[in-house]
Every structure is written in structure tokens, then in C-alpha cells.
Specification:
Layout (H helix, E strand, L loop, with lengths): L12 E6 L3 E11 L3 E10 L7 H4 L2 E17 L2 E18 L3 E19 L4 E19 L5 E20 L2 E20 L14 E15 L4 E15 L2 E6 L5 E7 L4 E17 L4 E12 L1 E4 L11 E4 L7 E14 L4 E18 L15 E17 L6 E7 L1
Antiparallel strand pairs: 1-2, 2-3, 3-4, 4-5, 5-6, 6-7, 7-8, 8-9, 9-10, 10-11, 11-14, 12-13, 14-15, 15-18, 16-17, 18-19, 19-20, 20-21
């Protein structure tokens, strides 16, 4: 759970540093005292300072990022947060007569969040956010010749928290998302090679409705339970291939823009209970189901192991499902100077991703034919003992899986 700095509503401040590898600077302060504020941070590496001058002139080797956030108190019941982030990593070089080679990737994200208080029991957070991840492999004379993969997301969601009574806190909400993926294609400025296949770009829509409750039954028992309904729809414009049992193409269908051609619907129940045996001992039990529709495809056999691509669940690749049961025990002893915790779990996974032998994941328009899936069962026990008080503290853990 990561929260960024909201900015100081009372006074201006700033700090910065020059280090052996990076420089950084951040400033914050009020736009209008007690009402609105800003926060800005910037960081850049200077690894290139350690390179010889003749190498440095032709070599890019750096990373940089910046973050900007505005915090606005409209009134006692409404607040707005606007933030943006951009990060870029570059490792490339230009050789005279040979061309530009290397890798570059960047992340950008922006968020607009509205916090609204209806009354002393109910409040909401409504958020619009978008993000883009780009990965480029330069292979030509200019920056216009490169292999590219990207994943982009835009989401609108509303989350509500309702303090129904002192024993029940109800959380519910909705989520609408659009996902856009390029599984990896060659972008060329000149001399387009017709023999290089074009990998179809992917587009999907994701809808979520959820509700849950944190309930304190009595002094000994507390529960958390809920249900999540999600709907995943694959949408054109794209090309879909059908495969036989030997993963050979038997049909090809092209779908028009915005045409829904495949849908998955899944329910995700979850339940957990804590039973307090006494002031020092607690037993826990939990069950939850999760679904994953976005798959990171990477082939460790490839010489470019970092050229990972994202691919959605669809007609040929099913979403991964996981069911997990866990039973735990927690005890404090010696005036709670020591805490012992242990948990046994069982996990069942369906449609786990694997790959064919010597799978070709790079610029392959039949990439779905390289993917295999199967079922997995996992189980284990995790135990930890902590010393949390006194001049000497620490922990020791053991896991069997």
C-alpha cells in the first residue's frame, strides 16, 4: 500500500541531494494556505559521469523520473487529488556507420481522485487513472527503427466505505477499465520487410462489482467476507486464430473495431474469521478466490530474456484461477515480548501458464500457439517467531512448501 506525499498545506519546503549515482530534488508548499498544496520531485542518475569522454558522447546510460501532485480541499466534505508520474530508463548507443542499438523503457501514469464525505458514516473515493508502459529495442540507423511492446490502461472506479454500526464496516464499489496491448512489433521508418509478421494488437474491457463486510461478532470472533463479480470482454479491432489439438492454425477471423468477440464472467468469494482463544492466542481461517486475466509472457530460452510482453485472456488463453485455504495460529508470550505465528495453506490453480519447448515469443503472430496451460496444487506451512520488545529484537522464520 503506497501513498504519495500530499504536499504541505502550511509552508514551503524543499530538499535535494547530489549522490555518487543520482541527483534528486523535491519541493512542496501551499497554493492557498489550509486549502490547497503541491508536491514535486525529480530524480536523475549520472552514471555516465564514470564513462570515458569518447564513450560518453555516443552512449546513453541513465534513468530519470518525476512526480507531481496537487491536493485541493474544496470544502469539509470534498477533496481533489491530481497526480502525475513519468519514469524513463535508457541504455543505448550510436555507432557511426552502424546505427543505434540498445534498450529503452518508460512508465507514465496520471490520477484524478475525488474524496467525498456523505456523512459521519459514509464516504467515497472516485478515481480516474491511466497508465502506459513502453519497451523499445533499437535496431536501426535512427530512433524510428525499433521493436516495441506496450500495455496501457484507463480506469474509472468508485469505492465506498460505510460504517454501518460499531460492529460492521461495509465496503462496496464498481470498476470500469479498458486495456490496450501491443504484444511486440517491429516499427520501421524505411524498407518495410513484408516477411516480418505483424502481431495483432489486443484490446479488452474489464468490469467489476464488489461488496464486503468487516464484522465484529463478539469479543472473541471477528469476520471479513465478501463477493466480487468481474466481467472480461475481448474487443476488436484484431485478428483471432483458431488452433487444433496440435496447436496448428485451422481458422482465422478478423474482428472490426469495438466488436466484442469473447467474454469471461467470474465470481470471487472471500471469507476470513479470527477466533480469539484468550488475550494472547488467536486462531484464523480464510478462503479466497482470485482471477487473473492479464498474462506476462516471457521465454527464458530467448537471448533477450527481458523482452517481456503482456497478453490478455481470450479464446485461446484462459484466465488463471486460484483458490486458497489457510489456517493460522498466533500467540504472544512472556508479556508479549515474543510473538509466534504459524500458517498452513493449500492452493489450487487452474490454467497456469507454461510454454512449448523452444517457444518463439518474439514477433510471432501465432504467439498463442506457443502457450500451454495446466493445473497446479501447492501447499505448505510458514512459521515465524519474533522478539518485539527489549534492547535485543529480531525474528526467525521457517517455511516448508
Amino acid at each position: 500500500d503506497i501513498a504519495s506525499n500530499d504536499g504541505n498545506l502550511h509552508r514551503f519546503s524543499g530538499n535535494g541531494s547530489v549522490g555518487l549515482l543520482t541527483n534528486r530534488l523535491s519541493v512542496e508548499g501551499p497554493l492557498k494556505k489550509e486549502k490547497s498544496s503541491y508536491f514535486f520531485s525529480n530524480r536523475r542518475s549520472h552514471i555516465e559521469w564514470y564513462l570515458p569522454k569518447d564513450v560518453r558522447e555516443n552512449q546513453n546510460i541513465f534513468f530519470r523520473d518525476f512526480h507531481l501532485k496537487f491536493n485541493i480541499r474544496i470544502n469539509k466534505k470534498n477533496r481533489l487529488f491530481l497526480s502525475g508520474y513519468y519514469g524513463n530508463d535508457d541504455y543505448s548507443n550510436m555507432h557511426t556507420g552502424i546505427g543505434l542499438f540498445g534498450i529503452q523503457w518508460n512508465n507514465s501514469a496520471s490520477t484524478l481522485r475525488w474524496n467525498h464525505v456523505f456523512n459521519d458514516k459514509l464516504f467515497s473515493n472516485t478515481t480516474i487513472y491511466g497508465s502506459v508502459y513502453n519497451y523499445n529495442l533499437f535496431i536501426g540507423q535512427t530512433q524510428k527503427d525499433f521493436w516495441n511492446t506496450y500495455i496501457a490502461t484507463i480506469t474509472l472506479k468508485s469505492d465506498f466505505t460505510w460504517y454501518y454500526n460499531p460492529k460492521n464496516t461495509i465496503r462496496f464499489g464498481v470498476n470500469f477499465s479498458g486495456h490496450f496491448m501491443n504484444p511486440g512489433n517491429l516499427q520501421q521508418n524505411q524498407n518495410v520487410n513484408a516477411l516480418i509478421p505483424i502481431v495483432a494488437k489486443q484490446h479488452a474491457r474489464y468490469r467489476v462489482l464488489y461488496i464486503g463486510n468487516d464484522q465484529k461478532v463478539n469479543d472473541k470472533i471477528s469476520m471479513r467476507y465478501g463477493m466480487r463479480l468481474n466481467v472480461w470482454r475481448n474487443v476488436g479491432e484484431t485478428t483471432v486464430y483458431s488452433f487444433n489439438a496440435n496447436y496448428q492454425v485451422i481458422d482465422t477471423v478478423m474482428y472490426a473495431k469495438d466488436k466484442v468477440y469473447h467474454t469471461y464472467v467470474n465470481l470471487e468469494p472471500r471469507f476470513a474469521v479470527d477466533y480469539k482463544l484468550n488475550t494472547n492466542e488467536v486462531c484464523t481461517f480464510s478462503y479466497n478466490r482470485t482471477t487473473q486475466y492479464l498474462h506476462l509472457l516471457s521465454n527464458s530460452v530467448s537471448p533477450f530474456t527481458s523482452l517481456d510482453v503482456w497478453y490478455p485472456a481470450g479464446p485461446n488463453i484462459k484466465p488463471m484461477l486460484a483458490d486458497q485455504l489457510a489456517v493460522g495460529y498466533n500467540r504472544g508470550f512472556y508479556d508479549r515480548k515474543f510473538i509466534l505465528s504459524s500458517e498452513i495453506y493449500m492452493r489450487w490453480l487452474k490454467n497456469q501458464i507454461e510454454y512449448a519447448d523452444h517457444a518463439n515469443m518474439l514477433m510471432n503472430n501465432l504467439i498463442e500457439g506457443e502457450v500451454r496451460s495446466g493445473n497446479v496444487k501447492a501447499y505448505g506451512i510458514e512459521t515465524m517467531i519474533k522478539k518485539v520488545k527489549g534492547t535485543f529484537t529480531g525474528w526467525m522464520s521457517y517455511t516448508y512448501a
